[in-house]
Amino acid sequence: MAKNxxxxxxxxxxxxxxxxxxxxxxxxxxxxxxxxFNPPPLKxxxxxxxxxxxxQKEKLQKHCPWHPLLKMKAFTLEINGEAEYIWCFCTNRxxxxxxxxxxxxxxxxxxxxxxxxxxxxxxxxxxAVAAARKGEDNRHVVAVIGDGSMSGGLAFxxxxxxxxTPNNLLIILNDNNMAIDxxxxxxxxxxxxxxxxxxxxxxxxxxxxxxxxxxxxxxxxRKSLIRFNNSLxxxxxxxxxxxEGLNIxxxxxxxxxxxxxLTKVLKEIKDMKGPKLLHIHTRxxxxxxxxxxxxxxxxxxxxxDKETGERIVSDTSGMSPLFQDVFGNTLLELARxxxxxxxxxxxxxxxxxxxxxxxxxxxxxxxxGIAEGHAVTFSGGMAxxxxxxxxxxxxxxMQRAYDNIIHDVAIQKLNVVLCLDRAGLVGxxxxxxxxxxxxxxxxxxxNLTIASPYDEHELRKLMYTAQLPDKGPxxxxxxxxxxxxxxxxxxxxxxxxxxxxxxxxxNDLAVITIGPIGNKSAAAIASAEKELGCSIAHxxxxxxxxxxxxxxxxVGQKFTRVLTIEDGVRNGGMGSAVLEFLCDHGYKPCVxxxxxxxxxxxxxxxxxLYAICGLDEKGIFSSITQIMNL
Length: 630
Description:
5-stranded mixed sheet; elongated; 7-stranded mixed sheet; single chain; alpha/beta
């Protein structure tokens, strides 16, 4: 039986391990002496076999009336006195449900966290070396990586290390010519052209096994023989193989949808010594025609009719726009007037809406693939020679380019605009994708301007300001989702760098916010003033760096109570910057800091997550009430 931590509340058991062949058996035998149904616990686990449970609605309602299908999250199954926790896949990406990405805390079958791309080879190599060190000769470690992820530098670092470190790692390269958008770059074309002979591999494998049995071939001679063999093959086939050039045995390409052939190949190569790579071809969305025909769109399709493929699209007319679309349209507007502007994105042209500019100006937008560090340094190189790059990287992914920001942009004071989309909590993608840390990790970097817009108008003004001459490295962070203004277009005009705004005057409490969370704060302030009868000032800091010292001096001189509110981590963020300033200048107000906690926030609807963190309107109102009652 799998041993999972009880506090994780999770337990995987496939149906066949429960003595059941399918879900029908499970539903139709509720009074079998082996089984007893119980009401769902508060925290429970999951079951692979329930993925088609929606077809069993009537049976579920008959035998589990306490848990109708559409609301079903979990129930327990007792087997010979031991409780098994069951979840169906309808909980995937929902609050307290199945995680959106593999998580070792959730299941022993999730071997490593992999919400970001390109890390599987390095992690698996570490596991393979650990297994060898522990004498686990029968353990087979497999790394699965997509062709889109192969553009990431970490993948090449792992390959390089795998070629020189003794290991028996198997790398499966899943090649579907896609990441979220289409794969780009030389690796994409290389993989399209790469092939090797199936007959050649069979002959080579058979000969290798015989040489080992006869004692002619051993591990010491193996690498030299492989190098000679690869050279000979390259000469005869007039084709280079980058993997075999690294002494990694290459097999493929194989049809990844032909399970029989794929199984046969895996059996043939699993016991081979040394690192090896199996190249398989697949089609993203295979088996569902609409997804096959529009893979980018169906990467995150939202709600849809599974029979017809019709996407259930909400009517967004009259709603405020997505921040990313305001960015994309404003970037194009600026680029039409400023010929120096270019766009850079690491494999997210549609996700960040840079495809808007790409459509009109394809020669001025560069999709560099999943390579965030390269995106920043590439932008630095263009800035050094007079261009003005807008480098758009999701906040959580910018973590991977931290050294590049410091070494290749900030030290040289280069005019690169770093646009951090998805700042703050992102919702269902969970802790690997929350933009929680950017303010804390960017704030210590010299020469860097850091700003966050209150609304769509502010975003446009900050983008305009950032592209003006001699502004240096300029970071603009903004969230996923919609803003607050339906009339989002406004004249493009500069704002003074390092200057915030007093949105509302007051006498009893100063509330300092940065970014769009200021809108929730404004609503909470209005409610607090009405219900508590107090007078609250509201300041939009706008710039985390440089700080508006005049604004903060005013706060320090006038108020004995200060509340800071941000959608990044509380430790080291905006609140810490304000606290440091007040302390350094001898002010001694009582400062309360609201922000994300010192923990990894789980996945779920973004509004629910902010409520859990006390950063929704109700939570902010509660904090104001506590402060005013001190």
